[in-house]
Write a structure and sequence with these properties.
Elements: H1 23-32, E1 35-40, H2 46-61, E2 65-70, H3 76-79, E3 88-90, H4 91-94, E4 105-109, H5 121-124, E5 131-135, E6 146-149, H6 156-167, H7 177-187, H8 198-209, H9 214-222, H10 227-238, E7 241-243, E8 248-253, H11 255-261, E9 283-291, E10 294-301, H12 313-318, E11 323-324, E12 328-333, H13 337-347
Parallel strand pairs: 1-2, 1-4, 2-3, 4-5, 5-6, 8-9
Antiparallel strand pairs: 7-8, 9-10, 10-12, 11-12
Helix pairs in contact: 1-6, 2-6, 2-7, 6-7, 7-8
Length: about 350
């Protein structure tokens, strides 16, 4: 049986998650540092990697040493935006820093939730006074002693830009603009989501004027799939079923599907969005068997339209210990695929008003 949670798993009792320093203040902290470790939530997406890379390259521009540590599965297409000058490490290979490489500042970006930092949290907790954060999520905890949290931003890269401006960073140098655009584009569904308002397009234009080739970037990230990925798309669509009188589409992928196609978890990014092309579907769920008795659930939903409200998949995922955004979230359920589907279906009536 999966255990439902009261409240949101990213919250901390009695803690208000909001900015407690200005972008200019944070810029001063970065400029005064001699070494910075940059990290983000596990299973980094385009925004997490983009924010990390943009900060890393910006610090190099002002002569501050930094490196990035990433944990969990990562879509290999995203790593294609890195270059030989970037110091990007995997936690699974390097672990936490040695005493000789202890940073004097730690930056946690695109999250403020301890539950999203499982690999690093034991190392981070005694260093909170040296942790700074840049985020755009409405929920989080005491991860960063000093933080900029702008929930009006569509991506963490958008929230980072005022900090970089205060640092005097030239976005056209060291290819800072490209990872900023990566985060902005991927977290808005390449500008399709309702979060892509006028400020997003103004920033996108500025980044393109700073040298971003949006067509090359899109091809690199979104048009660079393997045959194994397409085999998994076919299997996911074959499994398609509906809940909530057709308002919610559900797809399932088993361990046998991975074994028979040769696909990996890292190659599944975006598949969950496919059923949203159906007019009557308001939300889409992809259930993936990560191990026997463990199901990964990815949730997506459409903006409100036609008199129908949104399906807040952030809150739905929170019922199972996960979270994310209103229109994009995820969770892990310690049950098999069928039990996961049943548990989610039981919760849907409260989200389909």
């Amino acid at each position: 049986m999966t255990t439902l949670r009261d409240g949101h798993p990213w919250d901390e009792a009695g803690f208000t998650y909001e900015s407690n320093v200005s972008p200019a203040d944070l810029a001063g902290v970065f400029a005064a540092a001699s070494s910075v470790l940059i990290t983000t939530h596990e299973k980094p997406d385009g925004d997490a990697l983009g924010t990390s890379l943009a900060l890393h390259r910006s610090l190099r521009q002002i002569g501050v040493r930094s490196w990035i540590v990433l944990a969990g599965p990562l879509d290999q297409n995203l790593l294609a935006v890195t270059n030989e000058d970037d110091d990007v490490r995997r936690f699974e290979e390097c672990g936490t820093p040695s005493e000789e490489e202890e940073p004097d500042l730690i930056a946690v970006v695109d999250t403020g939730a301890w539950t999203q930092l499982d690999s690093m949290k034991d190392w981070l907790r005694p260093r909170v006074d040296r942790v700074v954060g840049v985020d755009h999520h409405a929920r989080g905890g005491s991860v960063a002693g000093r933080r900029v949290v702008d929930t009006e931003c569509a991506s963490a890269t958008q929230a980072l830009v005022p900090v970089l401006d205060a640092m005097g960073i030239d976005l056209s140098q060291n290819d800072v603009a490209t990872p900023l655009f990566l985060g902005l584009a991927t977290d808005t569904g390449w500008f399709r989501f309702s979060s892509a308002g006028p400020a997003v397009y103004r920033l996108a234009a500025r980044l393109m004027e700073s040298g971003v080739d949006k067509d090359d970037l899109y091809a690199l990230i979104e048009q660079n799939a393997s045959p194994a990925r397409f085999a998994m798309i076919a299997r996911a669509l074959t499994s398609l079923s509906f809940m909530g009188n057709g308002a919610v589409a559900v797809m399932r992928l088993s361990m046998e599907d991975f074994a028979e196609t040769g696909a990996s978890l890292e190659g599944l990014a975006g598949i969950v969005n496919t059923p949203l092309e159906i007019g009557s579907v308001r939300a889409s769920i992809l259930l993936t068997e990560a191990a026997k008795g463990l199901t990964k659930a990815s949730f997506r939903s459409k903006p409100a339209s036609g008199g129908l409200g949104i399906v807040d998949v952030n809150e739905l995922a929170a019922r199972f210990g996960g979270g994310g955004h209103v229109h994009a979230a995820g969770a892990r359920l310690s049950v098999d695929l069928q039990e996961a589907a049943d548990a989610i279906e039981a919760e849907l009536p409260g989200f389909l008003s």
